[in-house]
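Recall the central idea of this unit: under ordinary conditions, the amino acid sequence of a chain determines the structure it adopts. In this exercise we apply that idea directly, starting from the sequence alone.
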Amino acid sequence: MQRLVMMVVGFCAALAAAAPGRALIWGGGPTRDSAAAARTALDGSDVNAMLAFAPGFPKSIESHSVKGLKPGLHIVLLGLCSEKDDASLALAVARSVEPGVYARRIEFEGNGSCPVLKAPWTQVAATGAGTRLDLRVISDKQTLRALAWLKDEAGDLLDFASRATTCAIECKNVRALTAETEATVAFTLVVPSCSVTGEMDLEWQITVTRKRLSVREVKGEQRAGACD
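Accordingly, the structure predicted from this sequence is:
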């Protein structure tokens, strides 16, 4: 009887230790050379300036070493994200640099290693968490970047779109709004103009058409600065 109780306790502990999550994968392929090429591309990309990685990541692995991944691949792993981590934001940032980045559902034990935004990048606006269309806006005070993704009922990515602008002096009054099939990012761009800075209102309009996202920019009012 005591042995049976110990077996049940051990089984329950194993179930509790295995948690659902997502693996963020930069790229790779069937050979070690595929992973090496992906790692070279990663090291030369802007993603290292936008995301902070857990110790030991990114790293090249064989896919069979992570429960839930299709075996037989050599991949570059950005991190393992638990349900409490913001895997969607990390994936969106990486995809804004490299469209081939993807996520796979996995089970893992222990603590997650999900990438996070790297200072000075911060999230300045967000809407739509848990809806079909999700929108985040991030900035490092020099660039404003919108990240939008369309999800299926299971929360997996269907399509992704991003748009960025250089903030010549400042991007201010950032506002974001999403609905099921459209999203908007509105902001004011502060620009050089004579002795007093000028301003221009801009809007990024994101729309869903047949499970695909598109982004267009709409220019609004332009207010020139005063001149001496």
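Residues 5 and 218 are 66 Å apart (CA to CA).
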